Amino acid sequence: MEETDPLRAAREMRRAVLGDAYVDGVTADPDQAGRDFQDFITAMAWGAWARGGPLTPRDRSLLVMAMTAALGRMEEFRLHASSSHRAGVTDAEVDELLFQIAAYAGAPAGVSAKRTIKAVREAREEARR
């Protein structure tokens, strides 16, 4: 994909929220099609984050977590839940989000999200030790 200012901004936002280690890992694909796919994901999804507007990175993080939980995409939910602090989301806000997920996406989505949050927090505590 052509290197443009919007793509650079999207890459910077992705790194700021998900961290260098994660981004380096998923973008190091030796396959050109894999690299092209990552550029597409970066431009599409992270371009929406980098474009500015009235939603803050915190708002966007909460929305992504709510949508991925509602869709049952727990791998993506875990990724964003693990990184949400970099976007300014507090544990208390995530706890409240779980109620919204359960109320609007159903109890199974809420329970899965709660389990994932518990595992994310346990891993975070283990890393601190």
TrEMBL record:
Pfam families given in the database record: CMD
Location of the Carboxymuconolactone decarboxylase-like domain: 36-114
Coiled coil segments of this chain: none
Top-level taxon: Bacteria
InterPro entries in the cross-refs: 4CMD/NDH-1_regulator (IPR052512), AhpD-like (IPR029032), CMD-like (IPR003779)
Protein name: Carboxymuconolactone decarboxylase family protein
